[in-house]
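Hey, quick one: can you model this chain's 3D structure?
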Amino acid sequence: MSIAEDRETPAVPAGRTEVEVAIVGAGLAGTVLATTLANAGRKIALVDPHRIHHDEFRAEKTRAEQMGLFEKLGLGPAFRSLVTPMTDINVFRFGKFFERKEGPEFAFSYTPLVNGLRSALPPQVPLTVGKVAEVTTGPDRQRLVLTDGSVIEARLLVVATGYSEAVRRAIGVERIDESKAHSLSTGFDLAISPREFGPPLTFYGTRVADRIPFITIFRIGERMRANMFVYRTVADPWVRDFRENPQKMLLELMPEIAERCGNFAIASEVDVRQVSLTTTQGHRRDGVVFIGDAFATTCPAQGDGIHRVLTDVDRLTTHIPAWFATPGMAADKICVFYDDPIKVAADAKAMRASIYARQITVETGLEWRLRRLRNNTARRLMILARRFREAGKPSDAAPAVTGVAFDRTDEAGQELPAGPRLGT
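Sure thing. Here's the predicted structure for all 424 residues.
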C-alpha cells in the first residue's frame, strides 16, 4: 500500500528500526500515547511529517474529568504547565445571569499544547520527522516505509493521524459521514484584558433562527478568547458576514452582554473550522489500531473530543501488556480494544450529545419546540425563584419548579433526552 503526498518535510536518515509500537501522528493522541507507553517501558517509534506542530484551530478548553485522565496517564504536571485554569464560570440565559457554575476548567491553545507535550517526550522516544510512503500490516509484523527510504518495523501500528486520510486510505480503512458539515467552530480574541473582563462566561443563544448553541469567553494566559459554535456550513453567507465584521454581528446577537465583553472589540482574525460527525469502517484488522479523530470525529461544542482521545489512550495502554504477552497481533486481539465497554461508552456519549445538541438548538418540529418550551420554562422559574430569595423573602415563598424537569444535561450544558444513554 502506497501513499503519495505533495508536502516536503525533513526526514530522519534512512535506516531500519525495530520497535514494539509504531505510532503515526504526533498530535495530542499520538504524543500522549507515545509518552505513556515509553514510561511503561515499551520501545516506541513516533512518526510525524512536521518537527513543530503546525498552527491549527482545535479544542481550546477542557474540564476536570479530562485533567483526571491526564493525571492517570502520568501527564498531569506537563499538562498543568501548559494551560490556564479557571474556577467559577458565569452562565447567561435569555440575556440574563442564570447561574455561577463551579469549575475547574482548563484553557489552552492547541498548537502550543501539542508542542509542549512533544517537548516533554521521554528521551527514549525521539520524534521521527518523515512522511509515510508505504504501509504493510499483518497478524505478526507491521512495516512502515518513509519517503526517504527508512523502514520501521513493529508488532503493533497505531494510527493517530487525526483528520488526515493518507495512511487510512493506504491501509484500506474508510471514513463514514454520519452528519456532514454538522457544526462550525469559531474562535477569536477579544480586545478587553482579563482584569477588565472578570470571570469567564458562557452565553446561550435565545433564537432558533440564529443557529447558535452558545458562546464561551475565557482567559488563555493574558488574552481573552471566545469560542462560538454555530450550526451552519462554512459556505453560508452568514459565516462570510461574520468573519468580515464579527463585532457588529455579536453586538446584534448578544447586546445584553456586550459591555462586559468590551463591546466585542475583536483583537484577532476569526478562526473557523467545519466539523463533520464521522465513524470508521473496515478497521477491525490485524496489527493496526485507530485512535482519536483517526477513528471517529464528534462536535467540539460538547467538550468530548479530548475525553475520547484520552480514553482511547488509557484503554489501549491497558490492553497492550496482555497482547504482547502472547505471539502475534491478529484482529481478535485488536477487537478487544474496539469492544472495550469504557471506550464504547465514551464514543457513543460524544456522538449522541453531538446529534442531540444540534437538534435541540435548530429543529422546528413539534417535539423539539415542546422540549425547548419545557426546558426554558423550568429555567425561567429558577431565575424567578432566585430573585425572590435575593429580595429577602422566605425560600418557601419561591415558585416551585418540581414537576418541570430538564432533559438530562451533559457537561457542556446542552440538554440530552431523558432515558438510557447509548453505549457512550
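One thing worth noting: Residues 2-13, 397-404, 408-424 have pLDDT under 50 and may be disordered.
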